[in-house]
Amino acid sequence: MQPNLEILLRHSYLSRKQVRELQADLPGSLPQLRAALLQRGWMDPPDWKEAQALLLAPVESKDEDQAPDSANAAMQRVQEIALRIAGSDATALLLGESGVGKSRLAQLIHRGSARRNGPFVTVACGSIPETLLESELFGVERGAYTGATRSRAGRFLRAQSGTIFLDEIGELSAALQVKLLRVLQERRIEALGAEQEIEVDVRLIAATHRNLEEEVRSGRFREDLYFRLNVVPLTLPPLRQRPEDVLPLAQYFLGRLNLERGQSLQWQDRRLDRALSTYSWPGNIRELENCIERLAALAEYNQLSADHLPPRIFQETGIAELSAAQHGGPAMPPGSPPVAEGEASFPTLRDQEMALIQSALQRARGNIQEAARLLGVHRNTLARKLDEYGFEARRFKAPR
């Protein structure tokens, strides 16, 4: 548990004094650590959710997101620009629908910057009550108002030498917009009840699903703040415009669930591939992640099934609610032609070869050399077949 405390300290979730206090009675598990932090009032549930993602990341790359690279050209251009500006301290404004992956892109910019060893602090501006948001951002001194029984550093100070990510910045009140503009201009903050300002060294990344130009025209968002934020705007395409990314992301989320829960869930229901690939995902990546979590919770015999998809996906994609035994089979690789509903279910030679290759890859845990040995073919022969069918060996690797 000691390494977890070091991670929370490095990312400014805990102070050195708090870490020393916890070391005296070290929690033995993450649930116990969570209970101890919430009981002491050192962390609230949203903070814990952010911190838990760091603690559950693979040990060899605690600060790296293992999500697959996008195969979509528009998204690749966005990521290319994001990495290009990462080396500077230019303010980035991430635009796009809710759940489209703006937080992940913000982390990508942070990891590519010279501040990568500093904290990455997220503030969900839309989920914190306006009366509390100012103290969350800038901090509060003891006695500043009724109930302020102790001094508390704000998120800007916790992000010192790192990056602060203001998600849904379009939700800020007019008063907080003024205060934020001053912080961006002066690089100094003043905690509630404090007698002096504190200089801060942070890189700001903001995000919103709103059209800020329209918000400026309507008078709901300050024009001067908009221009301060809109240094490098990046618009992320919605998931419905990136169908090639759906299955790799689904496998990524499933792998992460397997890691968190110590499970080995997988799927071989090609109806599921078809449904996931053709659904429009109005909730974008967040909806996809929640869908995989639902399928994992309802899985039987360690197998995800299309039978457990939400009704709205059945309705939109036209996938009949039939048993996997009737229309099961190997997962279809990206790019495979869909099988029409009502078509004879007798497997073709191509289907059987695909199923055999997939079975070998699963048993070999994505090791191409071992899978080729099981199939009795040369490694190069198997590699050509993987290219032909669009299989990616890494998709079958066991989560670490």
Describe the protein in words.
By secondary structure, this protein is of the alpha/beta class. The protein has 19 helices and nine strands. The protein has helices at 2-10, 16-24, 30-40, 45-55, 73-86, 102-111, 130-138, 155-158, 174-186, 212-217, 223-229, 246-261, 270-278, 284-298, 311-317, 324-327, 349-363, 368-375, 379-389, and strands at 92-95, 120-124, 163-167, 188-189, 198-199, 203-208, 232-235, 266-267, 303-304. The strands form three sheets. Strands 2-3-6-1-7 form a five-stranded parallel β-sheet. Strands 4-5 form a two-stranded antiparallel ribbon. A two-stranded parallel sheet has the order 8-9. Helix 1 runs antiparallel to helix 2 (16-24). The longest helix has 16 residues, at 246-261. The protein is globular, with a radius of gyration of 24 Å. The two termini are 19 Å apart. The relative contact order is 0.09. Residues 58-65 and 321-345 have low confidence and may be disordered.
